[in-house]
Design a protein that fits this description.
- The strands form seven sheets. A six-stranded antiparallel sheet has the order 20-21-22-29-24-27.
- It has three domains: 254 residues, Spore Coat Polysaccharide Biosynthesis Protein SpsA, Chain A (Alpha-Beta Complex); 59 residues, no CATH class; 117 residues, Jelly Rolls.
- It is of the alpha+beta class and 456 residues long.
- InterPro entries: Man6P_isomerase-2_C (IPR001538), Mannose-6P_isomerase_type2 (IPR051161), NTP_transferase_dom (IPR005835), Nucleotide-diphossugar_trans (IPR029044), RmlC-like_jellyroll (IPR014710), RmlC_Cupin_sf (IPR011051).
- This is Mannose-1-phosphate guanylyltransferase.
- Keywords: Nucleotidyltransferase, Transferase.
- It comes from Pradoshia eiseniae.
- One of its GO terms (molecular function) is mannose-1-phosphate guanylyltransferase (GTP) activity.
């Protein structure tokens, strides 16, 4: 069995900690095996390793999530990058073609598709393995995993059974997020929660792409990615397939996509240097800012503060967050990159003098910023801690705590940390965006030697 692990999401439901590049699966608020903080992505990746599926897993994601995935899961994780976000059908199709034309997987091989943010125990993934035998025994085109509901939730989709077999059910149809009253009736009929897990023979999806006129070569499909229909796999494939079966799962399954559900799995009520009064029952505080937060006499609430904003919400309505945060349509204030992370401390627009962005950056030892230049802005770096080297217009300089580096517009520049380093970067100019970044080289080794090093 091969596994496609879907890592997507726009980071809206767990705002303000999640954003366009740090979606919910990357928030380190769970307790790992060693007692250290662990993200949903790290938990799922660890569990796949424990049940023997990690080496057969390919992660499908967008370019913005590649760095944080490698930071959290390790450089060995195999990743297929979507050229643009186009929903789950294109992502699965591209990854399936990668399995076929790059990994040379036989079309008869079974492929399981899993979300990266499931909160389950290891027996869930042991059940995923059973989808292979269910497909073969039933002769179906698609096999789903369906969770046995423990309440009539209106948050989930439901799999409606047609016939019950020995170890699986034949699927009649699907109902998406019904009312609680309607959901209870569905449960009485044996309906299951749709947990977003399904399996098929690799040749099944390849035949669909062939009928649509798309190539089965990875490089060719990559170049045509923008022409794939922008639609979910459920709508494009599952709901158009008649012979579908489902494997019931009786164990624990949680969707931690809203604050009320996520806080239930947190090991402590307060994360950060904060004050929570004893009479604040069932209230959680998650604080990523360097200022204290105090909550007094407020129960059944979640209080979250981060670089992107501050949330104070009753837990019962925290699931409504997505309806409101479209108003905060601005750049992420915190991101993880391959070299480390940055946090925007201030962003000010001056009517006559353009924009100024001040950000704190951390660069890991032996990591580097690419050799690049900007035409529309000046930059100033102030090294706070650590040591390293800077290249300015092909000249190499040693830098350490206290060094100040002026980078006028048009100057080619790069920075490598020889020890863990932190710095303050001030950008000033008319255009402060990624559109003004001209990358010259991504590898430090390609830049040296430019000559002897000097102290800046």
């Amino acid at each position: 069995m091969e596994v496609i692990l879907l890592s997507g999401g726009s980071g809206q439901r767990l705002w303000p900690l999640s954003n366009d590049s740090r979606s919910k699966q990357f928030l380190k608020v769970l307790e790992g095996q060693s007692g250290c903080a662990e993200s949903m992505a790290q938990r799922v990746w660890r569990q796949l390793g424990e049940v023997g599926l990690q080496e057969q897993t390919v992660i499908a994601t967008s370019e913005k999530q590649v760095d944080i995935l490698k930071n959290q899961l390790g450089r060995q994780a195999l990743i297929v990058v979507e050229p643009e976000r186009r929903d789950t059908f294109p992502a699965i199709a591209l990854t399936a073609v990668y399995l076929f034309s790059v990994k040379r997987i036989n079309p008869d091989e079974v492929v399981a598709v899993l979300p990266i943010d499931s909160y389950v125990e290891n027996d869930f993934y042991e059940s995923v393995k059973k989808l292979e035998s269910v497909l073969k025994q039933s002769g179906a085109s698609i096999a789903l995993m369906g969770v046995r509901p423990n309440n009539p939730s209106a948050r989930f989709g439901y799999i409606i059974p047609k016939n019950k077999k020995k170890n699986h059910i034949q699927v009649s149809h699907f109902v998406e997020k019904p009312s609680e009253e309607y959901a209870q009736g569905l449960i009485d009929e044996g309906a299951l929660w749709n947990c977003g897990v399904f399996a098929f023979h690799l040749g099944f999806i390849l035949s669909i792409l062939e009928k649509m006129g798309f190539p089965l070569n990875y490089a060719d499909l990559l170049s045509l990615y923008g022409k794939l229909p922008k639609i979910s796999f459920d709508f494009e494939v599952v709901e158009r397939t008649n012979d579908i079966v489902a494997l019931p799962y009786e164990g624990m399954w949680r969707d931690l996509g809203v604050w009320s559900a996520l806080t239930e799995q947190m090991p402590e009520q307060v994360k950060g240097s904060d004050i929570l009064s004893p009479d604040s029952m069932n209230t959680h505080i998650i604080n990523e800012l360097d200022i204290p937060v105090a909550v007094l006499g407020i129960s059944n609430a979640v209080v979250v503060s981060g670089p992107d904003g501050i949330l104070v919400s009753d837990k019962e309505i925290s699931s409504d967050l997505k309806k409101f945060i479209f108003q905060f349509n601005k750049r992420p204030m915190y991101e993880e990159r391959s070299w480390g992370w940055y946090k925007i401390l201030d962003h000010t627009v001056y009517p006559k003098d353009g924009e100024v962005i001040t950000r704190r950056m951390a660069i890991r030892a032996d990591r580097c910023l690419s050799y690049q230049k900007h035409e529309q802005r000046n930059e100033t770096w102030t090294i706070l801690t650590g040591e390293g080297s800077v290249i300015l217009n092909d000249q190499v300089f040693d830098v350490a705590a206290g060094s100040i580096i002026e980078i006028p517009a048009g100057t080619k520049h790069a920075l490598k940390a020889s020890t863990d380093m932190e710095l303050i970067e001030v950008q000033q100019g008319s255009v402060l965006s990624e559109d003004d970044v001209c990358h010259i080289s991504m590898k430090w080794e390609e830049l040296l030697p430019f000559g002897s090093s000097a102290v800046l």
